UniProtKB/TrEMBL annotation:
GO terms, biological process: methylation
Keywords of this entry: Methyltransferase, Transferase
Entries under NCBIfam families matching the protein: meth_Rta_06860 (TIGR04290)
The protein's name: TIGR04290 family methyltransferase
Pfam family, one: Methyltransf_9
Transmembrane spans: none
Protein's UniProt keywords contain Cell cycle: no
GO MF annotation: an example: methyltransferase activity
Matching CDD domains: AdoMet_MTases
């Protein structure tokens, strides 16, 4: 059931607990007027623990700005963006169960946020660019991660991209040269070479994990899609600015029309 914010924000703790349980299990541990949605999260108080490590790197006042939260899950970051005064926040996710959680969380916390079921692959259908795009914790869940970054660049990002990905492998970086000779094979084995690790079966018991980059690869992919890294406030988090994409970059993927 969808509630108007006013009535949801007045629910008793018992009623919030009952509805939150019915909407579970939750990945986001949210404080819904004193009721916690995922207190047993394997990463602790997640994603608040991560947010605390990079929150200062995002403008404290988002008045007048529009925000797109891709893979919004239970709505934690959408709610935080709205709390910072964003004029418009749109959260999208491919999973209707998470969107139902996000709608409930936004209602209970009294935040006016729009949530829509939409895959990142279909963001061209929004026909809109956003001042700030959050793309947190989604890249490694995609079979086509570079395509997603290209599409975000081509259709949705206007200025800032807040990006996060799980990383595995070496954290070293080595300078990227303009070119390498065909006979040069050693650079591929060096820890600082960008590597995207393919997961054929499962990782962390999750069959939706497909590609996990090392640090060099996460950074190279962002640059290659036309996102200049302006800050790296947390191990996995990057604040980027949209710039012109390098020659040869770009998505070859048609926008799905309304009838598709
Ligand atoms: C690990 S959670 C990250 C949630 C949140 N962004 C965060 O950082 O805490 C990944 C989310 O991405 C969503 N997702 C997976 N594939 C997607 C796709 N193709 N388009 C949009 N969302 C997707 C999942 O449903 C899930 O809610």
């Amino acid at each position: 059931m969808t509630l108007c914010s006013e009535s949801a924000s007045r629910l008793s703790s018992e009623e919030i607990r009952r509805r939150a349980a019915a909407l579970g299990p939750w990945f986001h541990n949210l404080d819904l007027n004193g009721v916690w949605t995922a207190p047993e999260h394997f990463l602790g108080d997640y994603p608040a623990v991560k947010w605390r490590r990079f929150a200062q790197a995002i403008p404290a006042d988002l008045s007048g700005r529009s925000v797109l939260d891709i893979g919004c899950n239970g709505g934690f970051y959408s709610i935080e963006m709205k709390r910072r005064g964003a004029a418009r926040v749109l959260g999208i996710d491919s999973d209707e169960a998470y969107l139902a959680q996000a709608r409930f969380a936004a209602d209970v916390t009294g935040q006016a946020i729009e949530f829509r079921r939409l895959s990142v692959y279909d963001i061209a259908a929004l026909g809109e660019r956003f001042d700030i795009v959050l793309f947190m914790g989604v890249l490694y869940h995609l079979r086509h991660p570079m395509l997603a970054l290209d599409l975000i660049h081509e259709h949705a990002a206007r200025d800032l991209l807040i990006f996060q990905s799980m990383q595995r492998g070496a954290a070293e970086l080595e300078p990227v040269r303009e070119d390498y000779d065909f006979e040069e094979t050693k650079p591929f084995d060096r820890p600082g070479w960008p590597k995207l690790h393919f997961i054929e079966q499962r990782y962390a018991h999750d069959q939706t994990n497909w590609w996990v980059p090392n640090r060099a690869c996460a950074e190279a992919m962002l640059r290659s899609a036309g996102f200049e890294i302006s800050a790296h406030p947390e191990e996995e988090v990057y604040i980027c600015r949209r710039v012109a994409a390098p020659e040869g970059a770009g998505a070859v993927y048609p926008m799905r029309g309304p009838s598709a």
